[in-house]
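Name: Efflux RND transporter periplasmic adaptor subunit
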Amino acid sequence: MNIRRWVITLVMLLLSVAGIFGYKESLNLARAQQGQGMPEPSATVVAELAQTVSYQANTKVSGEVQAYKQLELNNELAGKISKLNLISGSRVEAGDLLLELDHSEESARVIGLKARLELNRHTYKRYLRLQKITKSVTSWWIRPKPKLRSHNLSWRY
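Structure predicted for Efflux RND transporter periplasmic adaptor subunit:
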């Protein structure tokens, strides 16, 4: 009984597919017959006569030009920009100063290092003077002792 249901379902499915295929084929056949009865569509053609004209090498035009390519600038040092020396879209040449970075921290650090250098120079000079004084005092304080010769001396009491 179960096989009978499967066979009926399969036959119904095959009939449905065959019906859809047949209907689609009849539509295609009708469209082909309808196209045979109609004339081919005509195309409009416009003809122009060729004329010779003089060639101009240059043409002057007024307008606005936008750059095709862009340039992205990157700096090796990070910091705040204190001065921008160019206007957007202006022409720049090689070696032009485009912007200035704020260098107040670096300037303060340089001033501090110069002060430390000056202090170290004074300390060095002081050490040299102390060394000279120490040598002179040491040479006065520690004099070479005369060598004593041992003699056979007899002491009597």
